[in-house]
Automatic annotation (TrEMBL):
One of its GO terms (molecular function) is 1-phosphatidylinositol-3-kinase regulator activity. It comes from Xenopus tropicalis (Western clawed frog). GO terms for biological process: G protein-coupled receptor signaling pathway; regulation of natural killer cell mediated cytotoxicity. The gene is pik3r6. One of its GO terms (cellular component) is phosphatidylinositol 3-kinase complex, class IB. Signal peptide: none annotated. InterPro entries: PIK3R5/6. It holds the Pfam family PI3K_1B_p101. It comes from the Eukaryota. This is Phosphoinositide 3-kinase regulatory subunit 6 isoform X1.
Length: 739
């Protein structure tokens, strides 16, 4: 297939611009990875025949990067290559083989290179044998087109927007774009796309796409679905069958193609390759106004995909209070003196109903079955990162084999800053508590989390200009992900300021139904190729108030805990020297901690500081000191300091600890703010304790084991095999790239 020299040169320049941005030589290019990648793939939409050219250029650059040991090129180029292959109209056997050989060659590289290469090698092996298989699987899964008994794992995408963080303009823009996309992507249209792409990928120019599209357009929806099922069956049969090659698969599809258009006299012997749209995922936008909204949406998703007959009321059980140890729900009496049959209740006449109906009740499961379900459901997560280990867990877990059960997948996109992610961590913790307490009654789903940073219109805090930048940063999680994964930095972090700007622009009128708006296109790309999670430790905090009549409070946070000393009550301040009460904003705080060491040894310490407060952060400032621990920042006064002087920001002392206990030594109390959110503030606090949040299932099982053996230090049974720490996975393109 011939291409003009100008077209090849233009594509090559776009690829080289992406690589220069990865080198950091041009900051402007480095911040425009997403736009450069977008324009490269849009050139494929404008000219479907350029797919082979783009694949050829990308594989040349990959081979050159492998020879010259410029490894930071490999993952971005691989993702760009696979997306091109998925959308390309036709790829030759020679190119498929060349890409497949390269993926096998880099299996000797360390993680995450070998992990991604293995995944793509398996995809390419199937794609080479059955061209168009990746596209068919992608669209079928994202649009939930399967309706037969062999229904595969279904995908549901939920986009959560907190209206207190995200501006009204951004909310309206995303709602408008997703709704417009859903209206233009009916199930019948998506089925037609799959049929057309399968024929064109297998037959190339022997497929008259325009004629095929006209035939499908004239058919009623029922017949389109029948043809879709027949093509789908042929594609999946070829993918499963051993020893079959591309030629036999093409022959099968040629027979189906002949039955569809063979009677038409308008068919031409040779046709040009045509653009087959790749519909964006079905994204449901939700305004996140209720703390239990995530749980309720997951219940609805699982009911839709599994067609369960369980009533929704059974999942609206209010959160049960905890006992003193905070891991076991209080016992609720379920004894009843009646038979449980409504007709036997007093005051009910027998003639009202002859049908026997049971009252709603709780069915008690045996301990063995409870343990089996706990083991099945709670050992699938990756092992928790030990406190003090270098860097966070990254990549897909390989500890548990793939599940035979067809559970739905919920892809949850959080749009916002660290406040929104802190809210997510709290909702995720609540979900896991319900899952651990009621393993038989909790509907299961695979959860995948995605973070698209967007700066809110205003932050809840009022940062001082003299504070270090890390103290004013409201997107620490996404900043960290950008440091460890450059492709996330260039494609997703650049949306931080771009989305608010684009939302203020009037919608661009276009008649091109195949073109998605930029924000929706980048979000779809992130959902499809952001498959390597980075795990973040969630921390729990137990709060003790000055008023001893109040019960201690419990909460969780993900990125930051801000501690400030409250002013003294007026009656107390009057007993102090007036000048000192006005000028001295610092007070005494005692900190007891377990020091974080890379050796994972426990070393306890205690100190007393005179400070105006503290900031406890979980994300380090740089990669050199990337320990999974708490970073406690204070503006401690030295002996030579005088009251009323301000401590220099650069001299803030930092303490790295696995767990922290802090209390005020004076009559002044503490104010706590979690994850920079003014809605999550605790006042009149006397002391608090911070430690890594334990997996609720592990805590519950450990408590049961200890009570059964009578030993508070006993850890046996299933708890030995369970994940101990509660980790929040956030998907990226590469995970953590070391070095």
């Amino acid at each position: 297939m011939e291409h003009s020299e100008a077209e090849v040169d233009m594509i090559h320049q776009k690829v080289r611009a992406i690589l220069r941005g990865l080198d950091g030589q041009h900051p402007a290019l480095q911040s425009d990875h997403g736009m450069l990648r977008w324009t490269l793939h849009k050139s494929l939409d404008r000219n479907p025949a350029s797919g082979s050219v783009i694949v050829g250029i990308l594989i040349k650059e990959l081979e050159k990067a492998e020879r010259s040991d410029t490894l930071h090129y490999i993952i971005p180029l691989l993702h760009t290559l696979m997306y091109t292959i998925t959308k390309a109209a036709y790829i030759s056997d020679e190119l498929y083989e060349r890409v497949y050989v390269f993926c096998k060659k880099i299996l000797t590289l360390p993680k995450p290179y070998c992990t991604i290469a293995l995944d793509y090698a398996n995809r390419l092996k199937a794609e080479k044998k059955v061209p168009g298989f990746s596209y068919q699987k992608l669209v079928t899964t994202e649009q939930n087109l399967r309706r037969d008994a062999l229904q595969q794992q279904q995908d549901k995408v939920l986009l959560f927007l907190d209206p207190n963080i995200i501006s009204e303009a951004v909310c309206n823009t995303l709602l408008r774009e997703t709704q417009a996309s859903q209206i233009s992507q009916t199930p019948v249209k998506c089925m037609s796309y799959v049929i057309t792409n399968s024929f064109q990928a297998a037959l190339g120019q022997d497929c008259n796409v325009r004629l095929l599209q006209q035939v499908l357009q004239d058919l009623p929806p029922e017949e389109v679905e029948l043809w879709f099922q027949e093509v789908l069956s042929a594609v999946e049969h070829s993918a499963r069958e051993n020893g079959i090659g591309r030629q036999k698969h093409s022959q099968r599809l040629r027979e189906i193609y002949g039955k569809m258009v063979g009677t038409s006299e308008e068919e031409a012997p040779v046709s040009k390759l045509q653009v087959i749209p790749c519909p964006s995922p079905d994204i449901r936008v939700h305004l996140w106004t209720n703390e239990d909204q995530l749980w309720k949406e997951l219940v609805l998703i699982t009911k839709e995909t599994q067609n369960t007959d369980i009533e929704a009321e059974s999942f609206r059980i209010p959160e049960l209070p905890m006992d003193g140890e905070g891991t076991e729900q209080n016992r609720i009496s379920v004894w009843s003196n009646d038979s449980g049959i409504e007709r036997d209740l007093p005051g009910v006449e027998e003639k009202e109903s002859a049908k026997l109906q049971r009252k709603p009740c709780i069915k008690k499961k045996g301990p063995d079955l409870d343990s089996a379900v706990l083991l099945q459901n709670l050992t699938k997560a990756p092992k928790g990162s030990r406190v003090g280990t270098l860097q966070r867990l990254s990549g897909q877990s390989t500890e548990v084999p793939a599940e035979p059960e067809k559970l739905p997948t919920a892809r949850i996109i959080i749009l916002g800053d660290d406040r929104a992610l802190g809210k997510l961590a709290k909702a995720y913790y609540s979900y896991r508590k319900r899952e651990a307490r009621r393993p038989h009654r909790t509907l299961k789903a695979h959860l995948q989390f995605y973070c698209i940073p967007v700066r809110g219109e205003s932050t809840d805090t009022s940062p001082d200009k003299d504070d270090p930048p890390i103290m004013n940063e409201v997107c620490e999680i996404s900043t960290y992900l950008g440091r460890v994964d450059p492709w996330y930095e260039g494609n997703i972090n650049t949306l931080r300021d771009m989305i608010p700007k684009l939302s203020l622009m009037p919608p661009w009128p276009t008649s091109d139904a195949t073109s998605d708006p930029f924000i929706l296109d980048v979000t779809s790309y992130y959902l499809r190729f952001g498959i390597q999670p980075v795990y973040f430790q969630i921390y729990s905090i137990k709060i003790f108030f000055r008023d001893t009549s109040l019960e201690p409070g419990e909460d969780v946070f993900l990125t930051e805990l801000k501690v400030e000393l409250q002013d003294c009550p007026i009656s107390k301040v009057s007993t102090l020297p007036r000048k000192k009460a006005v000028t001295d904003s610092r007070g005494g705080i005692q900190i007891h901690y377990t020091k974080a060491l890379a050796s994972n040894r426990e070393k306890e310490g205690s100190l007393v500081l005179r400070t105006s407060g503290a900031v406890i952060k979980t994300i380090p400032r740089n990669e050199a000191k990337d320990l999974v621990c708490l970073n406690v920042y204070t503006d401690e006064l030295t002996r030579s300091s005088q009251f009323g002087t301000r401590h220099a920001p650069g001299n803030m002392s930092v303490l790295r600890a696995c767990s922290v206990q802090m209390r005020s030594l004076e009559i002044r109390t503490l104010t706590l703010q979690l994850d920079k959110d003014s809605r999550r503030v605790y006042t009149n606090v006397a002391r608090f304790e911070v430690s890594p949040c334990q997996e609720p299932g592990y805590s519950l099982q450990k408590l049961r084991t200890q009570r059964a053996h009578g030993d508070p230090n006993e850890e046996g049974g299933l708890s030995r095999y369970m994940t101990k720490s509660l980790l929040l996975p956030i998907n990226t393109f590469a995970g953590i790239i070391h070095g």
